[in-house]
Specification:
The structure holds 2 protein chains of 2 kinds. By secondary structure, chain A is of the alpha/beta class. Helix content of chain A is 37%, strand content 19%. In chain A, helix 9 packs across helix 10. The radius of gyration of chain A is 19 Å and the shape is globular. In chain B, a hairpin with a 2-residue loop joins strand 4 and strand 5. The chains are: A alpha/beta, B alpha/beta. Chains A and B meet through helix 3, helix 4 and helix 5 of A and helix 5 and helix 6 of B.
């Protein structure tokens, strides 16, 4: 065990997997210099420019070339820097990577990891702050991962790299500097599709992912003083998602609140809530952002965030 | 045959003719079958353009990859994809190259280096860059060919791919199949520059324009740019000027065509007739030999149709397979 930041944990995952498998390589803008968030720091020194590969600013061709390289047997890690920028490459991801295996009748493997950092990051405004994870959960053929902790960022990224399917890997930009204990064991991976119990509780189940897990945990701690016991589940991966864990929890607590940073309308919370309602008939609620582009001015941006107080209030109303 | 005028040996010429005729018969049969209602989806026919795919593919092996287009049947046949499996796929049968899950626009055979026809215009170009990069990193001498139509050559992903291939010095050749129409829109209007050679030079790579109805011209030009890519000399752009005999898709009313245009193309610009005249005129291959191949090509296509007709449709058990490898 050692303490690493969320960004360092991902870097360690990549370094270990690149040592383990010579077919793993990474490409994107500014990777040779360590990546815009330092998440590739030093990797070019160890692995050289052939495996830590700089690209022009050209998202469509970066994504498309990665799909082609994956189809012929290599395992690219594609750095998009901001999920917002990846929208320039959605055809290559949605029409090519996600569908190749099915439309070619099972011939193709597209083992690639697409790193698309999400989330509000102080005053980055409308084109550098979005959380678009729900879009990709809607696409058959894609895996969607949203790690919340340094340990998970290492273990999940290692699993994503080893996956034979295309994985949209969405780290939260506000978590890059979050420090935490990270197991050093190179063989430790976290299976995709297994949620994490962030906090045990009895009265209500709160499901979340990515940065919002920490906000939910804060709300749950506050509620404990009021005698309300909230269970917090970190989904970790949105597709596949851990239905059994969530349904099992709600079967005990009898109520569900789903919390995410993304716009509430059409968010993945709706899928979780609908599933719980269909399977258990339990009362469900969702909390997410209002249906606005993320604003620049701090007081406006703050209104786009789901806060501990909002979560606690919602739980009180349900409990 | 040492005194023959072509730089290609007689056996290869016979193979090339067989490939072109197989493509032609395949497409002519589909034209009939679509009209008869035997084909469930869209097809875009390659008839008239056979010389380009055939001449280019003669320079490639299974280790070389191609990324094709919506008009991909000719590329598939020339790259060695099984004709029976293709016909099965187009009819949506379980015997198809993709088990009936892809159809005409998604035929692929990765074992043959055929990375897929593509329903998204221009999308094959970055795929070819990726295949080229993988070949370069492995040092296996492989090249990748991106086929694109004149219309899709205006797509951003195609133009970005030209730049990426040049920056990375990839073993990729971008083949622009210029048949004059982007669906129904004239290339004269839709492509801002006068020549694709100018576009290539804008990305720092050689560009060559050839008469795509001239098998020998395409073969020679493709040989140079493919050899250059294979030897580490980087990407090139090859424009083949050609004509399609049918519409953008089967069912296209083709109101954009001039009166008598197709009749003139079939009479005076048919790449197979031109090839036939060249090889028989030079005395390298007899008309009787070619006639025999004609009959064999027709028989092969008929057999493929019979095979496809008899094959079962995929069943409900196939519906949700092949979405993921590891998950559900």
């Amino acid at each position: 065990m050692g303490e690493l930041t969320y960004a360092q944990a991902a870097r360690e995952a990549i370094a270990e997997e690149m040592r383990r498998d010579p077919d793993v390589w990474a490409l994107g803008e500014d990777l040779g210099r360590g990546g815009v968030f330092g998440q590739y720091a030093g990797l070019a020194d160890e692995f050289g420019p052939e495996r830590i590969c700089d690209t022009p600013i050209s998202e469509a061709s970066i994504m498309g070339a990665s799909v082609g390289a994956a189809m012929v047997g290599t395992r690219p890690i594609v750095e998009m820097r901001f999920s917002d920028f990846a929208l320039c490459a959605v055809d290559e991801l949605v029409n090519q990577a996600a569908k190749a295996r099915y439309m070619f009748g099972g011939q193709a493997r597209v083992p690639m990891v697409i790193r698309e950092p999400i989330g509000i990051w102080r005053s980055s405004a409308a084109q550098h702050s979005q959380s678009l994870e729900a879009w990709y959960t809607h696409i058959p053929g894609l895996v969607v991962v949203t790690p919340a902790t340094p340990a998970d960022n290492k273990g999940l990224l290692k699993s994503a790299i080893r996956s034979d399917d295309p994985v949209v890997y969405m780290e939260h930009k506000n978590l890059w500097s979050l420090a935490g204990e990270v197991p050093g064991d190179e063989d430790r991976t976290i299976p995709l599709g297994a949620a994490r119990l962030a906090r045990a509780g009895e009265d209500v189940t709160v499901v979340s992912w990515s940065r919002m897990v920490h906000v939910c945990a804060g709300a749950a701690a506050a509620l404990e003083g009021e005698g309300i016991s909230a269970e917090v589940i970190d989904l970790r991966t949105l597709w596949p998602w851990d239905r059994e864990r969530v349904l099992g929890s709600v079967a005990r607590t009898g109520r569900l609140l789903v919390v995410h940073e993304a716009v509430s309308v059409g968010g993945f919370g709706a899928e979780v809530a609908a599933t719980v309602a269909e399977e258990l008939g339990a009362p469900v609620r969702r909390l997410g952002a209002p249906r606005i582009p993320i604003p620049y001015a701090p007081p406006l941006e703050d209104r786009a965030r789901v806060t501990e107080d909002m979560i606690a209030a919602a739980v009180r109303e349900m409990a | 045959m040492t005194d023959q005028p072509f730089s290609i040996d007689r056996g290869t010429l016979l193979d090339a003719y067989r490939t072109m005729k197989t493509i032609r018969e395949f497409e002519e049969r589909l034209h009939v079958d679509v009209a008869r209602g035997d084909i469930p989806g869209f097809v875009h026919l390659y008839a008239g353009e056979e010389a380009a795919a055939t001449a280019i593919m003669l320079h490639l092996g299974d280790n070389d990859r191609i990324a094709s287009t919506h008009r991909g049947h000719g590329h598939c046949i020339a790259k060695g994809v099984d004709v029976k499996e293709m016909m099965g796929e187009i009819r949506g049968k379980a015997s198809g190259a993709c088990k009936g899950k892809g159809g005409s626009m998604h035929i692929a055979d990765l074992s043959k280096g055929m990375m897929g026809a593509n329903g998204i215009l221009g999308a094959g170009a970055p795929l070819a860059c990726g295949a080229g990069l993988a070949a370069k990193r492995r040092g296996d001498g492989g090249v990748a060919i991106s086929f694109v139509g004149d219309g899709a050559s205006n797509q951003g992903m195609f133009l970005e791919s030209l730049n990426l291939a040049a920056v990375w010095n990839l073993p990729v050749v971008f083949v622009v199949e210029n048949n004059g129409y982007a669906e129904s829109t004239s290339v004269e209007w839709a492509v801002a520059c006068d020549s694709y050679v100018d576009r290539a030079s804008g990305f720092g790579m050689p560009g060559v324009t050839v008469d795509g109805t001239d098998f020998f011209a395409v073969h020679e030009a493709a040989g140079e740019v493919i050899a250059r890519a294979r030897e580490g000399g980087g990407p090139s752009l090859l424009e083949c000027k050609m004509y399609r005999f049918y519409g953008h898709f089967e069912g296209d009313a083709q109101t954009y065509r001039a009166q008598g245009e197709v009749e003139n193309l079939r009479e005076n610009h048919d790449c197979i007739k031109i090839f036939r005249a060249a090889v028989t005129g030079a005395g390298v291959i007899s008309a009787a030999e070619l006639d025999t191949i004609d009959a064999q090509a027709l028989a092969l296509v008929n057999e493929a149709v019979e095979h496809a007709t008899a094959a079962p449709m995929p069943g409900p058990e196939d519906l949700e397979t092949d979405v993921y490898i590891s998950y559900a």
